[in-house]
Amino acid sequence: MNKMSAYRGKTTAEIIELNPPPISTETFNRYVERISGLFKFAISKRKYALRYNPFSGRGLDDSKTKKREPFTVEELTKIFGAAEHAQRKHKSTYAYWLPIMGLFAGARPNELCQRHLSDFEVTDGVRYINIRDEEDFQRVKNNNVCRQVPVHEKLIEVGLIRYVERLRDQGQQRLLPMLKFYEKDGDAKKPSDWFGQFGKRCGIMETHTKAFHSFRHTFISSLLNDGVPELSIAQIVGMRDGRLRQTSTGT
């Protein structure tokens, strides 16, 4: 109401009479998701005595909005073949680890940015990343996304576990301690802004459909193309299996 001069000083009823254009479906869903997160937090606190989240599942169908698309092999070659990545000369540690983790773990940007070293565990010889919201400033999209993601052998090969152990030896608690938490966009704000510029330097100009989130779509599409059952993929990426093909097309 305060952003546009035509609405200032008017009541809600008066603004409705002006028949203003609605916000986009994407913006609406973002607002609903944040309010739902607030209720989810309140429900987890016994003192508020809440048992119901009225905003859960209230998002609108956004099939008409531009979807994030998977990267092509050519685009991945440009990203990981760029000198600053191949030679590990990024100015920030997250600039090296987040793209390759996104590609081989299929997690959402904020899920990767919020990881604590305690989230890296081993059970029966299998290394995995615990996607959860048990530490400070950790958030998950909904209850369904809490999961254990196996650490891909390529991530082990490039030194992710060695990096985690080095941080533990230094007394660190977070995987990417240099990241700052933003109330609006979480921990991924700065990395997402960085990747937008990095992608342009790599010659990837489809900024509306190709973004950091595209690593997740690439991961899903690759598994689908390899014949991995959709239910198995959904469990790894924290998504209902019925949405997989809607989310990832192409490649």
Can you characterise this structure?
The model has no long low-confidence stretch (mean pLDDT 86). Helices cover 43% and strands 6% of the residues. It contains 12 helices and 3 strands, in the order ααααααβββαααααα. The chain is globular and about 60 Å long. It folds into 2 domains: 1-65, no CATH class; 73-247, Orthogonal Bundle (hpI Integrase, Chain A), CATH 1.10.443. The chain has helices at residues 12-17, 25-43, 73-81, 83-86, 93-105, 109-113, 153-157, 160-169, 189-201, 214-225, 230-237, 244-247; strands spanning 120-123, 126-131, 147-150. It has 251 residues and is mainly alpha-helical.
Q: How many β-strand runs?
A: 3
Helices, by number, come to 12
In CATH's first tier, which class of the largest domain applies? Mainly Alpha
Name of the CATH superfamily of the largest domain: Intergrase catalytic core
Structural class: mainly alpha
What would you call the shape? globular
Major sheet strand order:
1-2-3
The percentage helix is 40-55%
* Rg calculated over all Cα atoms: 20 Å
Alpha-carbon distance between the two ends: 43 Å
Largest sheet: 3 strands, antiparallel
Uncertain segments are none
Calculate the mean pLDDT score and round it.
86
| Helix/strand order | HHHHHHEEEHHHHHH
Q: How many distinct folded domains?
A: 2
Residues in β-strands, percent: 5-15%
The CATH topology of the largest domain corresponds to: hpI Integrase, Chain A
The CATH architecture assignment of the largest domain turns out to be Orthogonal Bundle
How would you concisely characterize the structure shown here?
The chain has 251 residues and is mostly helical. The chain is 43% helix and 6% strand.
